[in-house]
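Students often ask why we bother encoding 3D structure as a string. The short answer is that it lets us treat folding as translation between two languages. Here is a chain of 138 residues written in the first language.
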Amino acid sequence: MISPLFGQQFLWSTELESDVPHIPLEKVTEEVLKYYDHYEFYYDGAGYSKDKFLETILNYGDKSEGWKQFTDRIQAIKKVTVFAIRDNLGRGSVILVAAISEKNVNMVVFSNYYENDPILTVPFEREKFSNWFGSLLE
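And here it is in the second language, the structure alphabet:
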């Protein structure tokens, strides 16, 4: 779906008609908790309307056919679709998990690299994170 566009490693998706490993929506939180347990920080990128998200990326993206295909694909999503991408920013890997619904885009990034406003992934907050993340899938 997005891997060729950005060049990152596409890990999995809830989308059935995809060329990446499939994870059922009901197993997504369990998979995401593995990232929570592995990385030191996460960054909350939740709360975009789909229209605002697409407007934002169009301002930063180019006008290539790849970007058009990407935005068209995002716009076409009607039921909750979640995917995970691994990238390496030169300071270690990061995992981006995006949950896209008919009207919203919610993202969480996991990293061991400290940047602005990280949230610690600590064991005593794991259940709270799990509940919060699960709410993004509704």
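Translate back mentally: The first strand starts at residue 9 and ends at 13. Keep this in mind for the problem set.
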